[in-house]
């Protein structure tokens, strides 16, 4: 298939590792394991969502190997439809962003996995580079962004080799497509939802942060929190629910993180937005993920995205609207993602041209006013010449008014 080579057993965390869990000593966990396996067997995304949101998420890497592809809509039939495996990716044209990929891969695997030899670390980096570049070469419309390697690193460590490329490709085209466009504008549009959520859920906190732009959430939302969470167990558990829920759920997670820091934020004056930004741009440690997921789900239910004013500014081709549920996303193909991608690109280009025109008119507004005035008098002169009776009537009325 030309996809990245599978890691050996020694390269990947075992069931008892930081991202695994011993499910044999706890009958409750054993029952949950059976429920997860049953949901995977029947490809029941609704049930997997409930299990992913429940304490502990999907429990272990072995279970995630089966559940994540289901959540992403990956099946043998879908694999064949999404990817032309007859062509070796190394024979495909070089992607324009490959130099940046290598720079980021060189900085990967800082926190996990631990206790790797230098040789094993280099092997992991080679596999990560191959995974990213294969996805980009097979789907060259996608644009790489810094932090994408953090997401791919998690998939590399959780999924077996043959599943990595198709899973990451579907994630890229159907769930994080807004971040892989040639502009950051759609990503910024997502951030604008956070103040609206705060205004609806906690007006006092919203007012306190009203002078602070929501760019503090860019790193977290852009990388599905993989850049900021430093243990594989925690990020894998959070990925469980981010893959099981609609893409907009990640925004609610950050809004809930902000709300959970309410007391800390009120200790910093409102007129110090730089300090507030600094606080909010770093996730609190440790994160109580089970509580965070439950609170974010409750926040979503209380204030769904359609109730937010900024939702109207989100493109209809955005993943937030084209993948309004994990079930919808699972039924789409990577080709569907490409079509939505091209629609968003056309929208972005139109908006750029509109903004350029408005900026030009603003810069030359004095000349524009003079031009408009000259055009007005020119049109009036032509009109008067064509209707001389109107000029006589107007002159008479003016004379009568003047002599009163």
UniProtKB/TrEMBL annotation:
Residues 1-30 are annotated as: Disordered. The keyword Disulfide bond does not apply. The chain crosses the membrane at residues 368-384. Keywords: GTPase activation, Membrane, Transmembrane, Transmembrane helix. Residues 58-246 form the Rab-GAP TBC domain. PROSITE patterns: TBC_RABGAP (PS50086). InterPro entries: Rab-GAP-TBC_dom, Rab-GAP_TBC_sf, TBC20/Gyp8-like. Residues 1-28 have a biased composition (Polar residues). This is Rab-GAP TBC domain-containing protein. It comes from Phialemonium thermophilum.
């Amino acid at each position: 298939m030309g996809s990245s080579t599978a890691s050996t057993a020694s390269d990947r965390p075992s069931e008892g590792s930081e991202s695994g869990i011993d499910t044999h000593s706890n009958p409750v966990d054993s029952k949950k394991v059976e429920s997860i396996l049953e949901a995977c067997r029947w490809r029941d995304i609704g049930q997997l969502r409930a299990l992913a949101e429940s304490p502990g998420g999907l429990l272990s890497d072995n279970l995630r190997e089966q559940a994540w592809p289901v959540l992403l809509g990956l099946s043998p039939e879908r694999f064949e439809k999404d990817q032309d495996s007859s062509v070796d990716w190394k024979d495909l044209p070089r992607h324009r962003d490959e130099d940046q990929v290598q720079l980021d891969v060189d900085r990967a695997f800082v926190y996990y996995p631990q206790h790797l030899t230098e040789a094993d670390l280099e092997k992991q980096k080679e596999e990560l580079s191959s995974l990213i570049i294969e996805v980009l070469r097979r789907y060259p419309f996608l644009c790489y962004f810094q932090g994408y390697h953090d997401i791919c690193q998690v998939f590399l460590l959780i999924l077996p080799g043959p599943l990595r490329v198709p899973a990451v490709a579907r994630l890229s085209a159907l769930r994080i497509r807004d971040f892989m466009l040639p502009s950051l504008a759609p990503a910024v549009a997502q951030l604008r939802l956070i103040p609206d959520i705060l205004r609806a859920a906690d007006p006092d906190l919203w007012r306190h942060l009203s002078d602070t732009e929501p760019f503090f959430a860019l790193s977290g939302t852009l990388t599905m929190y993989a850049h900021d969470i430093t243990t594989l167990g925690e990020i894998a558990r959070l990925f469980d629910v981010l893959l099981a829920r609609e893409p907009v759920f990640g925004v609610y997670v950050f809004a809930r993180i902000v709300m959970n820091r309410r007391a800390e934020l009120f200790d910093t004056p409102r007129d110090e937005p730089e300090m507030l930004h600094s606080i909010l741009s770093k996730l609190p440690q440790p994160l109580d993920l089970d509580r965070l997921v439950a609170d974010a789900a409750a926040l979503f239910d209380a204030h769904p995205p359609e109730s937010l004013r900024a939702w109207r500014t989100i493109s209809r081709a955005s993943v937030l609207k084209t993948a309004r549920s994990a079930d919808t996303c699972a039924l789409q193909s990577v080709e569907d993602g490409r079509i939505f991608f091209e629609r968003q690109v056309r929208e972005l280009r139109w908006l750029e041209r509109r903004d350029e025109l408005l900026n030009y008119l603003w810069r030359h507004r004095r000349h524009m006013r003079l031009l408009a005035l000259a055009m007005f008098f020119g049109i009036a002169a032509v009109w008067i010449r064509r209707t001389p009776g109107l000029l006589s009537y107007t002159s008479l009325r003016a004379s009568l008014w003047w002599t009163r």
